[in-house]
Amino acid sequence: MKTANRLRLILGDQLNASHSWFRQTCPETLYVIAELKQETNYTRHHGQKVCAFFAAMAAFAKALQQAGHRVCYLTLDDTASFTDLPELLHSLIEQYQVTQFEYQLPDEYRLREQLANDMNFNTGVTTQAYETEHFYLSDSELNEYFKAGKKHRLEHFYRKMRKRVNLLMDGDNPEGGQWNYDAENRKKLIPADFEHVPEALVFSHDVSEIIARLKRHDIHTIGKMSQTLLWPVTRQEAQDLLVYFCRVCLVRFGQFQDAMTGQLDTLLSQRQWSLYHSRLSFAINSKMLSPQHVVDTAIASYRQAEGAISIAQIEGFVRQILGWREFVRGVYWANMPEYQQLNHLDATQALPSWFWDANTKMNCQHHAIKQSLDYAYAHHIQRLMVTGNFCLIAGIHPDEVDQWYLGIYIDAIEWVEMPNTRGMSQFADGGIVGSKAYAASGNYIKKMSDYCTDCHYKVNQIDTEDACPLNSMYWHFMDKHQHRFNANPRTRMVYANWLKKPEADRARILKHAHGLLANLDNI
Fold first, then answer.
1. What global pTM score does this model have?
2. What is the pLDDT of residues 323-368, one digit of tens each?
3. Cβ burial, residue 83 (10 Å; 0-12/13-18/19+)
4. In the 8-state DSSP scheme, what is residue 169?
5. DSSP letter string over 332-346?
6. Alpha helix locations (H) across 319-427?
7. Whether the Cβ atoms of residue 443 and residue 459 lie closer than 8 Å to each other
8. pLDDT-derived band of residue 1, with 50, 70 and 90 as boundaries?
9. How many other CB atoms sit within 10 Å of the CB of residue 359?
């Protein structure tokens, strides 16, 4: 059939087999899934990220075809002559003589604007947008919870959501008597814990054809990329990873969710990149799995464990998905497009060159960045309190930080990346997301990891030549922004301790920090 009455667009992060679109088949409906150069080039992506999305898109197209739907899958070879998505869609609509164009609302502002404003069809073509049917909160409900420019707090939102969907609740009260078990989720891994850390469940996909296409079309990527991809690219594989997490990792997920180690790996086993984390974020953000399904499955496993899994483990996991994930989405849509310009702390520094190769003498940064380059993945504390903390106290421009995080992580889509980075990590939004700037000295790294034990720098030194750079940079950051933070009850004690130091000591610390900040590429 050469014509189609209706064309439905499916974006790379809309691989939701449960969407109402697919309940019935119709030969007059054509589903279009396309690899596009505009999606590979709006930032420089990790090679594994591009391969994972393209492989998942192709697998989804195949699954739709097997279910009886009419699908047009276009590779980069097919779309290379089109400058952008609207140009491609106009061509397809003309080619198939389409009279109705339909799409699911994109979760990125740039794509939503592109489809809303750049699709000026000739008379006779109607357009309709649909919800993605993925999140706990529908698109139309977000403005009931989030307002532009308003400072929102996760804990208040999280409690509302727990009550709304009745998860881990005992009537109107939280199950176990507490809303939040974060205080029990901060245990450090010690060598005695190492033998219990599970192997990561990984997959094996030949992506050599995708890599060849990327080379053929001059797509530049970052990070380690081999012809075998270890990430799930089908709903079944994502489901397998979820089941593995519930059976093997959930029992200790909460207590070790903030832990980091650089001493666990051997030549035969690489486990420190994954630890007890689910690594489901790519599967959820591409919509292969719904957040509701993930949370419900995890809670069912918790119930069936009959006490073997404590509530602190499951609550920490639920908070990340029902709480944080829905929260940052609401912040994003309430504040775009202005949010992407915010730079509350007037940060101007360039990102150090070692963010692209991990060649730094700072062991914590080396491990977190090398892991990110190797796997397109790092867990939330590595992102927030290692690389994010460094960028914050070094005063790196939030545009550069945004682009690095958006490109390097396999799960990074702008709606979830930007509020995490520009907001939570860099405080560039002035407190819309977080109640304080998450700045820390080397002591935090020492508390939550073993990175400091074999580092070139000394974590217990502040201004000596071999002192941990985070220490003096932290005090420089707090001193520089004292006018912004000294009234915050969460940082008042910090300034009391700073001002207790003799003036000569403070001057020496600041001088040392200035030297580091002037030479970030070489620390």
1. 0.96
2. 999 999 999 999 999 999 999 999 999 999 999 999 999 999 999 9
3. exposed
4. E
5. HHHHTTGGGG--TT-
6. 326-335, 363-375, 380-381, 388-394, 398-408, 414-418
7. yes
8. low
9. 14
